[in-house]
Each structure stands twice: as C-alpha cells, then as structure tokens.
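Re: [ENG-882] Designed sequences occasionally contain unexpected residues at chain ends

Forwarding the minimal case from QA. Structure tokens:
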C-alpha cells in the first residue's frame, strides 16, 4: 500500500534538508529520502572539512612568513592534528544522526535509502511506495567525475572524499585537475610538506576565472614549491605501490593521486524517464520557481546554476515558497558569488570580463594591484592580489568583479551588494572606504574604470 504524504524530498543536500524542515514547519506531511548522510556533500566531504584544512595550511604559511616580519620561528606542521579536527566516519555518523533527529523533531518522516521516481508524484524506496500529493523535490547533488583514462579505474586514487579523510600527509601527491577542488587541496598538502604536482590540461589554473587569477595563483604556487604542469594531458595511469602517470609532458610519479576533474550529477537511476525527463542530461532544466515539471521541483548542483551550498540554500527557499503557493520574485543568478579558498583567496561575483564580452555587453574594465595598496604594503608577504571590476559602460553598473588576495571572500561582500543591487559606479565612487583596508582598493579600481 502506498503511503500518502504532501511532498517527498529525494536527497538531503543542504537545500533539501532545509526545504524538508521548512515544509514540515508549514504543516505539510513531508517524507525526506536520503541514501547516505543527512546534509549531503558539504558538511562531510566538501565545504567544511576542506576549509578546516585550508585554515590549518594558512596558519602554517603565516607562521613561515613570521621570520620575515617578526620572530625567527621554526614551523614543523603536523598533519595528524588537522586530521584529528576533521570528522572521521564515527563523527560523520554522529552528525548525520543529529541532523536526522533535528528533522524528525520538526515532523519530517526520514526514509533511509535510494529514492526512485516510479510515476508522477510517486517515489519508491526499497519496498516502500510514497505518494506525494503536491509533488517531489529533487536535491540529489553530484558525485566526483572520474575520467576514462587508461589504467585509472581500479587503482586506489583519491577523490575529495578520501582526501579529507587522510590521516597523514603523503610524501608526494599528484593532483589531476587545476580547478577549485584541485588547487585548494594541492596548496593545503604542499604546506604540510607533501611534494605536490598539479596536472592541468588547460593553459592555466582555475581556468573558469579571470586569467589574471590563474596567472597569479601559478606564480604563488611556484614560489611555494608546487609543480604546476599546465597544457598537459594524462594518457595512462599505473599503480604499483605508487602512481605513475604517462602524460603528454612525460612521466609523473606520486605516492597518492587525487582526481579532481569535476563532478557528475546524480541523475542516473533516479527514474526521471517515468516523468518524461532525460537521466543522461548534464543538468535538469528548471524555471524561476525551481519547477522541473508538473509536481516536480529541483534544487542544488543538479540544476546547473552554480554548484555551491549557498545556491542550493537560495533555491530551496524559492522552491519552498512555490510549493506553499506563495508568490515572490523568480530565482535570479546575476549576482552569484563564489570563492576559491586558496591563499590568496579568489572571490568572484557575476560575470568575468570574457563572459561579459561573450554576451556582447559594452564592457569597461577597472583594475588595481592589491600588493601596491597601503594595506597590501603593510601586510607584506602573502599580500599578493588584485581587484578587477567589469562594468556595463552604457548602464553604468558593475556586472561582475573579482578580488584576489587575503580575505578576498570577505572583501567580495561589498562588490556582491554592488552587482546584486545594481548600484551605479558613480555612487560607489563617492563612498568612503576605510583606511588602510584591503577593501579600499575597490576605490582605486573604480578610478581605473573612469580612465579606461
Ligand atoms: C571538495 C569540495 C569543496 C567544496 N567547497 C565548497 C565551498 O567552500 N563552498 C560552497 O558553497 N560549495 C562548495 N562545494 C560544493 C558543495 O559541496 C555543493 O554545492 C553542496 O553540497 C550543494 O549540493 P546539493 O545541494 O546539490 O547536494 P549534495 O550536497 O551533493 O547532496 C545530495 C544528497 O543527495 C543524496 N542522494 C543522491 N541521490 C539520491 C537518491 N536517489 N535517493 C536518496 N538520496 C540521494 C546523496 O546521498 C547526498 O547526500 C564544494 C564541493 C567539493 C566537492
């Protein structure tokens, strides 16, 4: 016999967990289906543990900079202390249970297992059939994408999930992929004494970002002893105690191999065919209310609108509002922020210069070098960075901005407001910027816009 509820949520990533609780708070009968851990990738294998690792790596780097600035310090970083701070399987179980208890305490019926759509407004989990009067909300997220490289399958390579579980820092690590996950992880391990090689097929690191960001990060990594091989493709992998990679630039070896070549959406096997959708799609098409079909909503990474926890949470609020038949503005992605937590950090909001030009916008660019600002000079070692602003010259508003430097993710806040609220650059230029801060460099970059 089918069990009747109002909404079935499949997948409890950050957005799904949030939505399930909010819908139950609103009095709906909610069944929430999760195959692994309540909360999804972010708290267990992604945002949170990787930023704990980065925080430890940053401290080590700052301590090493200390001799230049103050005392003569000997830094002997100890990875086991970092590993102890990051949750292991036992604490995962504890946190998963705590999150589950919080949801059930709000009236959500938690169903453990793989949810499969078996009809319109119908989900099957094992031998249970759930009928959702209002509909189904999908938040199934992504999994690491493993490229079909000869010899790779079956070797004990790491993805982000194993990297955050490492109990010791390996002697050497080869990182496949110079995107966000690759560069963040590479820098952390390098700072803990691992010999790191990054292999990237494109011409620079973090290829999606402004070229200035990839170029500067490449220089910082070179200074820190990370071997960056751009324009290099891996053709074969072999494992015999250690990894040997046959690449277009010769052989590369390492004790460990991290595969950080992107993510694939968890859409296969979800039963999308039962509602006329394609499970082989790279993302599910959603409208401004997060609807993917009749009685079907989708949020998070599977919508292809930005694979970030804050996007998943933002979309969950929009979907909840629509499911509850409340009105509000449609989802907008014009001012989505993102941060790469390397040192220096890379904070981006809206469009890069190339993206704005691709949209045929009348682009004007303003730049300034952070190290040459008063605060950058005071900061000394580790103060590399820049501010780059992208303006729609006819409209007079910023359509994008990148800040690279210490705490760039925090400085980005001001620019996110500017892009989101469509603040005219004349207004931004008459603001008072505190001295001597990093964010004061925004004023210099604005002046450069006028010089363009
Ligand atoms: C290494 C790394 C670092 C990151 N760092 C950041 C960061 O600093 N900041 C940031 O904003 N983002 C970061 N991200 C991205 C972030 O983790 C995701 O965007 C975030 O988790 C939101 O994903 P989601 O809501 O789509 O679902 P996910 O978190 O992917 O969760 C989906 C859930 O659905 C479950 N599921 C899947 N299929 C089924 C099924 N059929 N039945 C039942 N359950 C199912 C899965 O078990 C999983 O628990 C990082 C990602 C990685 C890999």
């Amino acid at each position: 016999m089918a069990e009747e509820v109002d909404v079935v949520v499949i997948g409890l990533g950050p957005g799904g967990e949030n939505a399930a609780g909010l819908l139950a708070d609103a009095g709906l009968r909610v069944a929430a289906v999760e195959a692994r851990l309540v909360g999804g990738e972010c708290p267990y294998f992604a945002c949170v543990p990787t930023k704990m690792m980065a925080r430890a790596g940053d401290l080590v780097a700052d301590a090493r900079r200390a001799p230049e600035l103050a005392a003569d310090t000997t830094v002997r970083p100890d990875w086991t202390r970092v590993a102890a701070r990051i949750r292991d399987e036992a604490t995962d179980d504890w946190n998963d249970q705590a999150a589950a208890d919080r949801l059930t305490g709000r009236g959500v019926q938690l169903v453990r297992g793989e949810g499969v759509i078996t009809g319109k407004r119908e989900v099957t989990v094992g031998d249970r059939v759930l009928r959702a009067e209002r509909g189904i909300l999908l938040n199934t997220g992504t999994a690491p994408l493993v490229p079909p490289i000869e010899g790779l399958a079956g070797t004990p390579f790491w993805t982000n999930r194993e990297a955050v579980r490492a109990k010791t820092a390996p002697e050497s690590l080869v990182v496949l992929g110079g995107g966000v996950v690759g560069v963040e992880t590479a820098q952390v391990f390098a700072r803990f004494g691992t010999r790191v090689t990054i292999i990237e097929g494109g011409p620079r690191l973090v290829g999606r970002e402004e070229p200035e960001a990839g170029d500067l990060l490449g220089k910082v990594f070179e200074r820190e002893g990370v071997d960056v091989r751009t324009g290099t493709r891996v053709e074969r992998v072999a494992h015999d105690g250690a990894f040997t990679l046959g690449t277009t630039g010769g052989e590369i070896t390492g004790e460990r191999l991290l595969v950080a070549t992107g993510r694939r959406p968890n859409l296969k096997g979800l039963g999308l065919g039962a509602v006329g959708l394609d499970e082989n799609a790279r993302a599910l098409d959603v409208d401004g209310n997060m609807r993917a079909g009749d009685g079907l909503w989708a949020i998070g990474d599977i919508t292809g609108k930005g694979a970030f926890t804050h996007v998943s949470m933002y979309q969950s609020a929009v979907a909840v509002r629509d499911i509850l038949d409340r009105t509000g503005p449609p989802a907008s992605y014009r001012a989505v922020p993102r941060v790469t937590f390397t040192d220096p950090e890379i904070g981006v909001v809206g469009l890069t210069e190339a993206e704005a030009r691709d949209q045929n916008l009348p682009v004007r660019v303003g730049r300034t070098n952070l190290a040459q600002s008063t605060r950058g000079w005071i900061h000394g070692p580790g103060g590399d960075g820049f501010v780059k602003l992208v303006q729609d010259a006819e409209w007079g508003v910023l359509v994008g901005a990148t800040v690279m430097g210490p705490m760039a993710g925090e400085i980005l806040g001001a620019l996110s407001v500017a892009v989101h609220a469509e603040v005219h650059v004349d207004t931004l230029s008459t603001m008072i910027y505190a001295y001597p801060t990093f964010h004061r460099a925004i004023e210099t970059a604005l002046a450069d816009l006028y010089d363009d």
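QA comment: On inspection the terminal residues look reasonable. The domain at 337-451 is CATH 3.30.390.30 (Enolase-like; domain 1). Proposing we downgrade this to a documentation issue.
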